[in-house]
Amino acid sequence: DIVVALIGDEAVVKRFYRKGRxxxxxxxxxxxxxxxxxxxxxxxxxxxxxxRTI
Length: 54
Hints:
By secondary structure, this protein is mainly β. It has no helices and 5 strands.
């Protein structure tokens, strides 16, 4: 799933992965390192659509 998450005061859109009891957020861009769930991580919601203008 792709989610919107708050990490501290920063909002991010990342791919959500659960590994046992831990959570990992990964970017679609391989240049960015995965983010392991911390206490200041809040999942705001799941991305269900993307709308773009042409």
